[in-house]
Amino acid sequence: MIKILAFESSCDDTSVAIVDSNYKVYANLISSQLSHDDFGGVVPELASRLHLKNIVRITCAALKKAQLSFDDIDAVSVSINPGLIGALLVGVSFAKGLAYSIGKPLIAVNHMIGHIYANRISHSNLKPPYLALVVSGGHTELVDFKAYNDFEIVGRTKDDAAGEAFDKVAKLLGLGYPGGVKIDALAQKGDPEFVKFPRALKRKDNYDFSFSGFKTAVRNYLEQHEPEFIREHMSDIAASVQQAIVDSLVTKTMNYTRNNRIDKIIVAGGVSANSFLRKEMMSSAAKWKVEVYFPATEYCMDNAAMIGAAAIDKFWRKEFASLTLNAFSTKGLRLV
Ligand code: KG4
Ligand code: ZN
Predict the structure, then answer these.
(1) Which of 212, 137, 216, 140 is nearest to 172 (CA)?
(2) Which one, of 240, 247, 329, lies nearest residue 283 by Cα?
(3) pLDDT digits (tens, 9 = 90+) for 93-111
(4) Which terminal CB of the chain, N or C, has fewer other CB atoms within 10 Å?
(5) 56: which residues sit within 8 A by CB, 6+ positions away?
(6) DSSP, residue by residue, 69-98
(7) Domains of the chain and any CATH numbers
(8) Contacting residues for 255 by C-beta, under 8 A, at least 6 apart
């Protein structure tokens, strides 16, 4: 059995985790950067500086929580892309320096692959072939995995990502950031059929997503109604917004699944925490007799445990990075 010390700093959460090769998580500490709240979104330079301020302290705290020392660690892993370049660089530089100084191998992980591996923490034997719906603040991708290193992105967003759509609409509704969680909570007591917002790219063989028309429809709806009416029906509007986004995610995923005889679906990324998405995906999958998996809620959002989990297969395959490793911000799921 091996233990991985993992770092995640791609956006506004500094996270350090220790995970073993049975996917047991010894520590998964996340320091969320509340200072961005004053600006209504993540300020990249501020994120980098806060990572720098936090990373040593969180590393020490993670080792202490796990009651382990550097001698117990077999490899250091870090997410290197995609993300904010300055933020990623803090994690990558720190992981490189640490791996060198403790004499342990370094493993580079793509953040989106990390989200997929968050599923392994609860389902340790979960392996391809499967279809992955990866839905986060920056990505919405349908990925057909035949094997670990044989996959094709068969659908992607043409404009906003699903999480971005949640966040932007939440902003229009005055709910604050991050919007997905707030809409999810409000929608619990709302009527999802209250407003029928449009769904884009409805052809059954089109697996791409688009949320910009939907976003405009929400803006128009809000402009056409009195503030008092909006306030009174806030939870109905939130439920209708959530229904539109989730319906599009579930319909596209199920269309691909049925057209390509897929028998296993996994969902990953921050939006996989959405309670309505979980419910709808499970009932649709049950209807078509397809297996569906989600990460445990605590591993849906950005965290280093998923980066450690993704490093385990790489460790066995000896896919180690050299100390010339660099971060890069290019979007998309790739092996690194
Ligand atoms: O994966 P993630 O933590 O960061 C990125 O890699 O982007 O995803 C963050 C996104 C945000 O857009 C947030 O609003 C969304 O995930 N999110 C949710 C929920 N929890 C987080 N969206 C809908 N419902 C939720 N419960
Ligand atoms: Zn993420």
Answers:
(1) 216
(2) 247
(3) 999 999 999 999 999 999 9
(4) N
(5) 94
(6) -GGG--EEEEEEESS-HHHHHHHHHHHHHH
(7) 3-117+299-316 (3.30.420.40), 128-297 (3.30.420.40)
(8) 204, 205, 207
> Which residue do the tokens 């077999």 mark?
74
> Phi, psi at residue 134, to the nearest 5°?
-105, 110
Q: Which two tokens stand for residue 198?
A: 């449009």
Q: Which amino acid is residue 185, in one-letter code?
A: A
178 lines ligand 1 (CB under 6 A): yes
Contact 111, 306 (CB under 8 A): no
Our answer on whether the CB atom of 179 is closer than 6 Å to any ligand 1 atom is: yes
Residue 39 pLDDT class (50, 70, 90 cuts): confident
CA distance 257 to 11: 32
User: Across the strands, what pairs with 220?
Assistant: none
At 122 the pLDDT is: 96
Cis peptide before 129 (omega within 30 of 0): yes
Residue whose C-alpha is closest to residue 139's, from 292, 290, 273, 270: 270
pLDDT (mean) for 47-51: 96
Average pLDDT over residues 111-135: 98
Instruction: Return residues with CB closer than 5 A to ligand 2 (ion).
Output: 136, 302
The pLDDT confidence band at residue 67, using thresholds 50, 70 and 90, is very high
- Is residue 40 very low, low, confident or very high in pLDDT (cuts 50, 70, 90)? confident
Single pTM value for the model: 0.96
Cα–ligand 1 centroid distance for 187 (angstroms): 16
241 lines ligand 1 (CB under 6 A): no
Q: What is the pLDDT of residue 314?
A: 98
